[in-house]
Amino acid sequence: MIISQQLLSVNGLSYTIRSAMETDAQQLSELRLQIDGETENLDRERGEAFIDVQGFEHIIHTDAESPRNLFLVAVVQDRIVGFSRCAGVYLNRFAHKVEFGVCVLQEFWGHGIGKNLLQESIAWADANHITKMTLNVIETNEKAIELYKRLGFEIEGVLKNDKVLSDGNYYSTIIMGRFKMTGE
């Protein structure tokens, strides 16, 4: 699905949040690779599950046409610095929910980009009668967990010792969800 463009300014940085376009595919492929190497908050290490330009073009095209998917980018002066995606399932028993994921270049942390991508996604979900949003977050990402709680997510479960990070230690994944009854 496509949403209207939003212009934001947070902590002295102006940026736009808009739906991804197929012409963004090259930047997105490079950006995802860079972000995967900057933090251990995500599931992948740099280069794992690489998505090339054609792969991103396909995802963007599919998401734009799907009423259950949303692919957003955050843009600073024509440079994509972050993105988020809501992906739904087409099985009837799961048609009410989407899974949310987000990533932002480390140099742009602290400007509300992740928060605003999530808020736009929540507004889209609410407007499109999607009653549940889910996400996974590593236990060490306390700042993200607190943000998700402030925006109505609650902890639904914990996958204990789910990931091994570069320090060789095991870390748990927190499963969070936001449920909104129709008509709220």
Task: Write a concise synopsis of the structure shown.
This protein is of the alpha+beta class and 184 residues long.
Description:
The structure is a single chain. The protein is an alpha+beta fold. The chain is built from four helices and eight strands. The protein has helices spanning 25-38, 53-65, 113-127, 142-150, and strands at 6-10, 13-19, 70-76, 79-88, 97-104, 132-138, 154-164, 170-179. It has an eight-stranded mixed β-sheet with strand order 1-2-3-4-5-6-8-7, sandwiched between helices. The chain starts with 5 loop residues before the first strand and ends in a 5-residue tail after the last strand. The mean pLDDT is 92.
- What is the first-to-last residue Cα distance? 23 Å
**Class of secondary structure makeup:** alpha+beta
- Strand segment tally: 8
Total of DSSP H or I helical runs spanning 4+ residues: 4
Output mean pLDDT: 92
- Radius of gyration over alpha carbons? 16 Å
Shape call = globular
SSE sequence, one letter per element: EEHHEEEHEHEE
How large a portion of the residues is in β-strands, by DSSP E? Answer: 35-45%
Within the largest sheet, what's the order of strands?
Answer: 1-2-3-4-5-6-8-7
Biggest sheet statistics: 8 strands, mixed
**Which stretches of 5+ consecutive residues score pLDDT under 50?**
none
- State the helical fraction: 25-40%
Provide keyphrases for this structure.
single chain; 184 residues; alpha+beta; eight-stranded mixed β-sheet; 4 helices; 28% helix
